[in-house]
Amino acid sequence: MNSLIIGSWKLKSFEAQNQNGETIFPFGKDPIGLITYSATGHFSVQYMPREINPDKVNGVSYFGHYEFNREKDYIVHHVEGSLFPSEEGLDKIRHARLRGKSLTLTCPPLKWGTNEEAVAIIQFEKQGELPPNTAL
Fold first, then answer.
1. Residue 107 CB-half CA count within 13 A
2. Alpha-carbon separation of residue 9 from 38, 55, 75, 86 (angstroms)
């Protein structure tokens, strides 16, 4: 079943909703990013704002191996390396909604910039595969 998730997914939006229902944009309203899932079970994640702000987190990058369960709509990112060493060895569980070329990951409540917890909702669009190089 992992074949459905394999490929590169471009970040479309990254927002978090706090307990009061307010929307927070941890990486600004127009962030950039990519998540890639390989057939070998490895993944890589990068998110960042388009503009650097010295008062905010300016990016997230981590990698490792993953488990995808389509029937139960979740994915687990087993973090092997991260910009934040305290995350290494963690299992990040995400609700995963996969519909055609759209992937939405919903994270459990985390603290985003402020001391209040918020649920992150991250939306991606699958990128087309490159055609095989027949010129060789």
1. 19
2. 11, 28, 14, 26
The answer to whether the predicted template modeling score (pTM) of the entire model surpasses 0.85 is: yes
Q: What is the mean pLDDT of the chain?
A: 90
Residues 108, 117: contact at Cβ < 8 Å?
no
In whole angstroms, what is the distance from residue 98 CA to residue 105 CA?
A: 9
pLDDT digits (tens, 9 = 90+) for 61-96: 999 999 999 899 999 999 999 999 999 999 999 999
What confidence score (pLDDT) does residue 47 get? 92
On whether the CB atoms of residues 82 and 88 are closer than 8 A, the answer is yes
Instruction: Report which residue type is found at 65.
Output: H
**Exposure class string for 86-106: b at 16+ Cβ within 10 A, else e:** ebeeeebebebebeeeebbbb
The whole-angstrom separation of Cα 74 and Cα 68 is 6
Cα separation, 125 vs 88, whole angstroms: 27
